[in-house]
Each structure stands twice: as structure tokens, then as C-alpha cells.
Amino acid sequence: MDGSGQGRQEPPDDDGNRGIENAVMLGFFAVLVAAGIWLLGAMADIRKVQDCAAQGRRNCTTIDVPERAR
Predict the structure, then answer these.
(1) In the chain, how many domains are there?
(2) How far apart are CA 43 and CA 13, in angstroms?
């Protein structure tokens, strides 16, 4: 030290980059949560079909019927 009491100088905070980094992390977190919710829904659907098949039933898959035009 040189006796002036300053010691090391810390680099200034760059708030512009911090905001961009926070936005990127928020976007990543939102995608991660959405993927988790989708995965849980898909696993629930598969479990329902497997439970139906385990009971010996037939036609356990859902059938999408289009609406009729009037």
C-alpha cells in the first residue's frame, strides 16, 4: 500500500450489462419452468394410458373428434 488508504480499485459496476444478464436469466428460467410444466403434463397423460392398459381395457388413447361445420 502507498499509505493513501485506497488499496485496490474495484472496477465500476456496469448496470447496462447487469440488466441484460438479468433479462437473459429470467428468460431462461421461464423456459425451464414451461418445459417442466409440459413434461409433468406429458407424464400424467402417459400414466393414465398405462393405468388403463394395465386394467386390460382397450382403446385407452384419447380420440380427437373434429367439430362438425353447421
Answers:
(1) 1
(2) 45
